[in-house]
Structure formats: structure tokens, C-alpha cells
Amino acid sequence: MIIRQSNRNDMDQLIKMRYDFTAEFKELEPNLYESFSVECRLFFEEMFESDRWTVWVAEIEGKIVSHVFVEIIDTIPRPGRSKSPYGYVTNVYTIPEYRSKGFGSKIMTEVNHWAKENGLTFLTVWPSETSVEFYERHGFRRAEEVMENHFIN
């Protein structure tokens, strides 16, 4: 197994994994994959061109089995303090047959190390109820509730 940062060559696998991630929890319309793939590829192309995203993957013999996306977000500088970027952890997914084998944990260990080495002040995540324990094992702690204002159902 290799833990590494993702690159453009991984797009097809990442797109399929994103689709499968959603399909696990929601019935998707037939023939949706093609249009989704186009939209997701455009997003990933922009993502890989920017310096705002890092994607970590666990790979076995060329197959990506798990991934964690981190978006770097800059804060506005304050008097006496420079900007202090933090990371938003999202799209954490492991292919079902590879779950509970430590792949996600190995990636999160690498993400935590990378975040510290790159001067991020903290990482944040909006966990599902079932993933809270996973994040707690990797140093995350509950914080004050986030406020949200939803505009789309």
C-alpha cells in the first residue's frame, strides 16, 4: 500500500469513487454517471490547477482504495497576526471492501503531519454521526456548533 498525494492521473478513479460514495446513500437516476463525470472532471481539473486543494490517497497496485480531500482556506489577517490558513477536510471515503483495514487512518495520520508541516493552524470537518469516533481517534475534538444557512433543498 502506498499513501501519496493525488494528481491528474487519478481523476477517473476519483470521479468513480465520488459517484459510488453518493450511490451508497442515495438512489441515483440511471444514466446520471456520464453528466456527473463531466461536471466532476471540470471541478477536479480546476482543483489540481490550484494550490488550494490537496487530495491524499491510499493505493494498492494502482487502485485507489481510500481518499481524503483537504481544502486550504486562508483567514483574513489581523493587526499583529498574519493570515493563518486552516484545512477543511471533506470527501473522506474508502471503498467498502477495504474498510476497517486501517487505510483511512493511515491517510489521516499523513494529513495531520502534512497540515502541521505546512503551517495550517487547524483542520475542520463536518462529520457524519457514524464517523465521529474515527475523527476523534485522529485528534479532532467537538467544537462549538457551526451555523449554516441553507438555500437549496
Give the structure's gist in a few sentences:
This protein is an alpha+beta fold and 153 residues long. It has four helices and five strands.
Give an account of the 3D structure:
- α3 (103-117) links the parallel β4 and β5.
- The protein has four helices and five strands.
- The mean pLDDT is 94.
- It has one domain (2-137): Gcn5-related N-acetyltransferase (GNAT) (Aminopeptidase, 3-Layer(aba) Sandwich), CATH 3.40.630.30.
- It is 34% helix and 23% strand.
- It has a five-stranded mixed beta sheet with strand order 1-2-3-4-5.
- It has 153 residues and is of the alpha+beta class.
Question: Which descriptors would you attach to this protein?
Answer:
153 residues, alpha+beta, Aminopeptidase, five-stranded mixed sheet, 4 helices, 34% helix, 23% strand
User: How large, in whole angstroms, is the Cα Rg?
Assistant: 16 Å
Q: Looking at the structure, what is the overall shape?
A: globular
Largest sheet: 5 strands, mixed
Order of helices and strands: EHHEEEHEH
Q: Low-confidence parts, pLDDT < 50 over ≥5 residues?
A: none
SS summary, helix count: 4
> Can you give the helix content as a percent range?
25-40%
Q: How many β-strand runs? A: 5
Number of domains: 1
Structural class: alpha+beta
The top-level CATH class is Alpha Beta
Give the termini separation: 40 Å
Mean pLDDT: 94
Q: Classify the beta-strand content into a percent band.
A: 15-25%
The CATH architecture category equals 3-Layer(aba) Sandwich
Instruction: Quote the CATH topology.
Output: Aminopeptidase
CATH-defined superfamily: Gcn5-related N-acetyltransferase (GNAT)
Strand order of the largest sheet: 1-2-3-4-5
